[in-house]
């Protein structure tokens, strides 16, 4: 069970790093993938996207560092706490009138995978 949880956690960590990098490199495409349209010409909007990108990269690195440290129980608690992020993302996309398919299919599914991984890690 721990091996499956570690694989899920590793995929989550790596994916959020890639998503963060995408917000730095291709912010318009990243915003659309998130489920919202944005005006990347507006410097203020672009600044917020960069903030999101850097914070996503840091979040992914935290997961990978906990994995490398061999701290499955702590990793489980961190993933459980961090599940609020995709749940909030889901609510944000729905509240902004974004695509329900992205809200539930991306953010909702991410929350479920994180809860499963956290549960497996906490049971180990």
Automatic annotation (TrEMBL):
<keyword id="KW-0812">Transmembrane</keyword>
<dbReference type="Pfam" id="PF14087">
    <property type="entry name" value="DUF4267"/>
</dbReference>
<dbReference type="InterPro" id="IPR025363">
    <property type="entry name" value="DUF4267"/>
</dbReference>
<keyword id="KW-0472">Membrane</keyword>
<keyword id="KW-1133">Transmembrane helix</keyword>
<feature type="transmembrane region" description="Helical">
    <location>
        <begin position="102"/>
        <end position="123"/>
    </location>
</feature>
<protein>
    <submittedName>
        <fullName>DUF4267 domain-containing protein</fullName>
    </submittedName>
</protein>
